[in-house]
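2024-03-11 09:14:02 DEBUG pipeline.ingest accepted 1 chain
2024-03-11 09:14:02 DEBUG pipeline.ingest length=82
2024-03-11 09:14:03 DEBUG pipeline.predict start
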Amino acid sequence: MKKVVIYTLSTCPWCMRAKKFFREHDIPFEYTDYDKADEKTKQLIRDDCHDHGAEMSFPFVKIDEDVVVGYNPEKYSKLLGL
């Protein structure tokens, strides 16, 4: 199974939908609420976004090494082979 990591904002409705998508499809994922993270974690998230050549926008979804910025269930499904 591919590894899924999501960076979110705790109050973002699109972030909540992204997490719901993975739960409904029984896809395990890790997530970090950027707005609730400490400064060190926030810097790691910023660096990770930059390293993947993506803008810092939420939700920021990594499926293995592929990145999807924003809520896009069609892309999630395609990358996961659903």
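2024-03-11 09:14:41 DEBUG pipeline.report The mean pLDDT is 94.
2024-03-11 09:14:41 DEBUG pipeline.predict end
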